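Researcher: I'd like a structural prediction for the single chain below. Treat it as a standalone chain; there are no partners to consider.
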Amino acid sequence: MTVDVAIIGGGISGLATAYDLAGRGLNVVVLERQIHAGGNAVSERIGEFLMEHGPSTVNAQSIAANDITKRLELNGEQCDLGDGVKSRYLVGKGELQGIPVHPLGFLLSNYLGLAGRLRLMMEFAVPRYRKDQEETIAEFAGRRFGKEFAEKVIDPLVAGIYAGRADELSVKAGFPKLHGLEQKYGSIALGLVQHHRQGAKNMPSSRLFSFKDGIGSLPKALARALGDRVKTGVTVRRITKSSHGFNIDAGDRGEFSARAIVVATQPHVAADLVEGIDAASASAAGDIEAPPLAVVYLGYNRKDVEHPLDGLGFLAPESEKLSMSGSQFCSTMFPGRAPEDCVSMSGYFGGARAPEIAKLPAADLTEIARSEFKDLVGAKGEPVVSQVRHWPRGLPQYKIGHNDRVKTMLEANGRVPGLFLTGNYISGPSVAACVDQAGKTATSVWCYLDDQLLNELDQHQDMAQEIAI
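Model: Treating it as a single chain, here is the predicted structure.
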């Protein structure tokens, strides 16, 4: 089979790239190893409960995510955060502590000590970082906001977003907007005030959305729109360069030929696939770690849970010594996630903080989750629903030097014309970031093929002129 573009990997990144290119009139094929496309965006109905095995929200301010939702005619399926989301919770001293949803929330609550709040108020007076050495998120947060804020707020936030450790991840790669505010304004607080005055719309939004049947609705809609262009159960064994582009060995599924190729797999798979054609990209992708994760989903009768569950969930600092790094109150976040007389919660285990915990058997993880939910939200009795998902490889870790690795991979086309890499390790692990990056990848592929076509036309014209002469 010969196509314009072959996309290896049928997660949201690969499907969205294919959808964009197909919309431009190119002949594309998506080769997905699993029997279903969608990657880790898996939503499962368990009776009247809905479990998200992977991502559960989309940033409502993402232009790319809103655009693809509209084009796929998913607007009618879209649902906003429930009215019950009124507080944000962090674990402190062994219990949930509510922080007001307000710009001054951490100053108005007692979650931080007096010294920590006073130090936080001095952020505007901290000088801009001018050293050449790249900072970790922990170093950046401790320097700008103080040690207590870094350990009790930023540390759990990093665990929630990246399943990572703040003392390992790069602030330039993990929190590029915060790093940019400091470099431009000299202060995060002053930068946020300035952006607010300017009515800036590119700052992180607190508003999120999903779909009635979960985030899995997005890759399902993409796969439906692409139709038979998506080939599942296809394991790519080898990619080789050819005079016309690339040859793809898919074992018993045959061979595919393509003028351009997009590798949209997990980084360790990308490293193996491109090793024979681009050693630089293979090395960069191979350096990206993705420690294991586990999700424990529990549904309870409403009467068996004491806490109002009036938030998105909670995050836990590492200092609290919990097995769970955080939780989501699923039935509060969006409608239709549990029966009316029930509630549902997801607990997250593993990541860079405690990878071995994520490998525990389902029964063990369930017991740990039940115990910690009992202590934190007063969940008693037997769960109505219990489900565990193990992810042997979780979220990519944006460690020191990550931006350099990404730069190397984004320049693959310069070394090997027609080769492109995309995925959740490029510009962010969120659904919105993946969709946005997919659009950029598709544009790069389109420009490459357009230039290639123009070159071919010029060559044909030159040959015609020579023949005429």
